[in-house]
Amino acid sequence: MTAPTESRAAAPASRTGTGSSSLQSRLRSFPLIYVALVIVVAVGAVLLATEGENLFSGGSIVDILTRSSLLGFIAIGQTFVILCRSLDLSVGYVAALSSIVAAVVMNGQESRVVLGIVAALAVSAAVGFFNGVVTTKLGVHAFITTLGAGLMIKGFLDTQYPGPSGSVPNSFVAFGYTRIGILPLSTIIMLVIAVVGIIVLQRTRTGHSMFAVGGNIDVARLSGIRTDRTLILAHVASSLMAGLAGLLLAARFSTGVGAQIYSAGYDLDSIAAVVLGGTLLLGGRGGIGGTIAAVFILGVLDSVFNELQIDPFARDVLRGVIIIAAVALYARRQIDPNKARTRFRELTSRGRRAAARAAQGGRS
Q: Which class in CATH covers the domain with range 29-309?
């Protein structure tokens, strides 16, 4: 008589355990970066309020969005590359090259705006194509390839264009300063490109191929995916986005600039934004949505640090600590505790069996 009762009592407990596990799984898969963005905004607002400042004033919001749009362009392209288990350290140099090409070609003439834009993006795409071909066809690691390409661009710019070069007409300057309401035009364009990038990754064969290549390039190749072409497309996309960022900088400076751009650290900042947004450096997992949220986090932090007049060195230290802590938290959330315990028991059991066999062999 007690067995049915025990069975009925066990069923709710089982369902409760399953529900708890399911809840933990959903919490573990929830994009923590969005929660982090809300927390950073809230904490930043409180800190500024104690100093009599307002994070949500029109000027502060425009400043945050303006900062974010520039890094956002570069970080979107970097996301494509890192998803494919690659890397692009040439983005800052490509942005500098793009700004100079655009300014020199335009030369302050309204009639040459389109030609300048096309020339800048074409040169940027050519650099990305070079990076992709050298990485895939010659087997050079992307770290070396893109670093070498960046240094070649740096040498060319330092030799041929050591200072500001060319000029852009007023109509193009509007790209850097025009606002629609409180939203800068550059931020709107960045968000539109981000949406397009999300669609490409989630709904197209090219996007699925990038995830597959990043997950396991050998399996992807055996599955019929043209892995070389996928990697080349990712590098071209990365350089194109860096070239677009260079156009934005040319619009803001009203001229082409070299050293001031490539020494600003956009390469490492973009990688930090991608990783902070939840994309694995080993590729195969992540997305542009998380990258954009991370870009806004960095934008808010920079704006708050500037308002509080924090020392630049301390600012870099704080940003580094936040990035490391966030990535460490991601790593812990991606580990299923139940699977980890099962794996630990299996390894322990194997170790004991191996030790027993060794002991028997020694006695014999």
A: mainly alpha
